[in-house]
Amino acid sequence: MDALTLFIIRHAEKPDDGWPGPGFTADGVSDTESLVLRGWQRAGAWTALFGTDLAKGDYARPDAIYAATPGTTPNRGPSSRPAETISALAARLGATPNEDFGKGHEPALITALLALNGVVLLCWEHKAIIADVLPLIPVSKG
């Protein structure tokens, strides 16, 4: 069996009490569940990091990209931020992100991820990474 390399990133910046600005979709529609301008900039930075060889091989191009299932109605959950964060990278790589798992479905997500091999990028909600994702990943010591 080939090895799995799993990169886990948090979604980019979100609206928070007026700073760092309003959230909006890729089409410019105001949305509290979307990224703010700085978040869209960070999404572009992830694209440069994982979608080119700028890091000289430290950050390999993902073979698969996963993000939490996004909401479809502006200003109502679930958050679209994880999917938005990886959208430019997926477009650059010509990849279709897997958005089949939503927040709260981390056990099924981890089961699916651990069945893969190659380089996989997961973008998830930052608090859930610590509380719900990392505890489910087996770690080899030694």
Automatic annotation (TrEMBL):
Q: Which domain of life is it from?
A: Bacteria
Its name, as the record gives it, is Histidine phosphatase family protein
